[in-house]
Amino acid sequence: MTVWRSTIKTQALSVGALIYDDTGERVRVFVAKRAETRRFLPGSFELPSGRVRLGEDLETALRRVIKEKLHVDVTPERVQTVLCYFNSDRGEQLAQILYLARLHQSRPQEIMLTKAKYAQSRWVSLETLESTLGAMKVSAPDEYQAVLTTLVELERRQRV
Q1: What distance in Å separates the CA atoms of residue 114 and residue 60, rounded to the nearest whole number?
Q2: Using 50, 70 and 90 to split pLDDT, how confident is the model at 107?
Q3: What kind of fold does domain 5-159 have according to CATH?
Q4: Distances (CA, A) of 80 to 17, 97, 103
């Protein structure tokens, strides 16, 4: 997507987590549905993410953001990809560092959402990806592709 420079008022850096669970038969990735009260992309599924504070390193920011929004601790494993997008509501260009991350606790069902941010959440596998995240393919195609690529990679790794 090309955005004219005159519409961009600010730039920001954010971190996101592609949280996965490979303890079952199928690898799954965690996605959350934005609350309908959110101004930017209300009701759409996304990977949990948030802004990096001034002076904060990226992995510390990721752990803080996930703790604030999901009330769980994660271990960042590696940078999976970098996404860039435009928030038309704020006139803001964002660069998002997307990390592959693992939950600290062994039971993925312990995730509790911050209700002001998220309405619901799901764990998606390759089989349920399209039915759950079909709208993400349109609203956030780079993020959707990152989820798809990661699931395929993790499935291959699990079979070895």
Answers
A1: 19
A2: low
A3: Nucleoside Triphosphate Pyrophosphohydrolase (3.90.79)
A4: 9, 8, 16
Instruction: Count other C-beta atoms under 10 Å from residue 70's C-beta.
Output: 23
Residues with Cβ within 8 Å of 41's Cβ and at least 6 positions away in sequence, in order, are 34, 139, 140
Angle subtended by helix axes 141-159 and 129-139, to nearest 10: 140
Mean pLDDT throughout 137-148? 78
Residues 26-51: tens digit of each pLDDT: 888 998 888 888 777 778 888 899 99
CA distance 72 to 104: 8
Strand (E) or helix (H) holding 42: none
Which of 102-122 are b and which e, b meaning 16 or more Cβ less than 10 Å from the residue's Cβ? ebeeeebeebebeeebbbebe
Alpha-carbon gap, residue 157 to 160, rounded angstroms = 5
- Asked whether the predicted pLDDT for residue 4 surpasses 80, the reply is no
Six token digits for residue 105: 């606790």
In the chain, where the domains are located = 5-159
